[in-house]
Design goal:
Layout: E1 6-10, H1 15-27, E2 30-37, H2 56-69, E3 73-77, H3 79-95, H4 102-121, E4 126-128, E5 133-138, E6 141-146, H5 163-166, E7 169-170, H6 178-187, H7 191-194, H8 210-217, H9 221-225, E8 229-232, E9 235-239, E10 263-268, E11 273-277, E12 283-294, E13 304-309, E14 317-324, E15 327-337, E16 344-349, E17 352-359
Parallel strand pairs: 1-2, 1-4, 2-3, 4-7, 8-11
Antiparallel strand pairs: 5-6, 8-9, 10-11, 12-15, 12-17, 13-14, 13-16, 14-15, 16-17
Helix pairs in contact: 1-2, 1-6, 3-4
């Protein structure tokens, strides 16, 4: 029995989770690897060869690391739970005129829940993932902070984790940069892994075409929603293909010429209407956040001021935040562009993750 304890490591077959397992094994933990099968591309109607975390190649890569280092490895099929929670929500959000955030939901309701359940069964004290983030205990709370590598920081997608989950979570990569992780993989003797390309697509949409995915899941959808109105400056200026096939801030693929660049400003599912606007029209000063979860504090401090992100690659904008009923009211100190209902709004106190939630359509 290891003095460090027993840890269940989520292994996708990629470099980050593999190095996570290698590091913990080297540090003296008793490591057990687990690869979660969440999806198969045939279910999405794609003819693309499976790549990424759910492919047979990736499962084999994860298993090879475990075999070489001499620790157990298991495969966990959670396609049923994934489909019910993540896929159904993905479709429902687009039908509601919102832009879903499947990775956040998956982390919160699928991966961590599945990991903790199996960790208990295997008598593991800890779980670990290859996320570029850090966690510590402070003032009787477990606090997530940004990863050292600002280009890879993944704290944005972790705002939904509970204190109970964080209490048992280890993020070994949080204090390292991606180039350092690649060198570690080479040092461990996994040169091919170090050069393995990364996937940035949503795992169940291999060709990054969510519109084709929606049409496959709901063959009748295109007929039901086609022929809606494009509205610009209060006037109908054209006909679109159906409101679920557009996202806030979209410019390309509108197939409409108005003599100036226009973007999707608002989506109204009740009337199958897509409102267009100029770049200046996309600017917003405030928004509301629903279903929020607090990480650093038990509740949002009054008139809290912190850097706030409205999308993953957003550098963030300073904002004043207050609780109003069951929502957070966020007032930005500078205007922000492309506020998309359904996306995550995440707040920071320096490098610490304060909390987050989903952008609401209205108050």
């Amino acid at each position: 029995m290891s003095k460090k304890g027993k840890v269940l490591v989520a292994m996708s077959g990629g470099i980050d989770s593999s190095v996570t397992a290698m590091m913990l094994h080297e540090q003296g933990y008793e490591v057990i690897g687990i690869t979660m099968k969440t999806w198969d591309y045939q279910s999405s109607g794609s003819s693309t060869k499976e790549t990424g975390c759910c492919s047979l190649d990736s499962i084999n890569d994860a298993r090879q690391v475990a075999v070489n280092l001499g620790f157990p490895h298991y495969i966990l099929d959670i396609r049923s739970e994934f489909g019910t929670t993540i896929i159904d929500n993905f479709v429902e959000e687009y039908l509601a005129g919102r832009t879903p955030n499947p990775c956040v939901l998956c982390n919160t309701h699928i991966k961590w829940d599945a990991l903790l359940k199996r960790a208990n069964m295997l008598e593991c004290e800890f779980i670990a993932t290859g996320h570029y983030a850090q966690v510590r205990k402070e003032n009787n709370r477990y606090v997530v902070s940004r990863g050292l590598d600002t280009n890879k920081d993944q704290s944005y997608v972790l705002w939904g984790l509970t204190q109970e989950s964080l209490q048992r979570t280890i993020f070994p990569l949080g204090k390292f940069t991606k180039p350092e992780i690649r060198k570690m993989a080479e040092g461990y003797g996994f040169a091919e892994l170090a050069n393995k390309p990364e996937s940035y697509d949503i795992c169940f949409i291999p060709d990054n075409d969510y519109r084709a995915f929606l049409k496959h899941k709901m063959p009748e959808l295109e007929v039901q929603v086609e022929g809606g109105d494009f509205i610009f400056k209060g006037e109908k200026v054209g006909t679109h293909r159906g409101y679920p096939f557009y996202t806030i801030g979209q410019r390309k693929g509108l197939d409409i010429a108005l003599g100036e660049p226009v973007f999707v400003k608002n989506i109204i599912p009740e009337t199958n209407t897509v409102q267009l606007g100029t770049k200046e029209d996309l600017a917003e000063q405030q928004l509301y956040v629903r279903d929020f979860n607090m990480i650093k504090y038990e509740s949002m401090p009054a008139d809290f001021v912190g850097r706030t992100k409205i999308r993953y690659k957003d550098p963030g904008t300073m904002a004043t935040i207050n609780t109003e009923g069951n929502k957070l009211h966020v007032v930005f100190h500078e205007q922000v562009s492309g506020v998309a209902p359904g996306q995550s709004c995440v707040m920071y106190d320096g490098d610490d993750l304060v909390g987050g939630g989903f952008i609401a359509r209205n108050q």
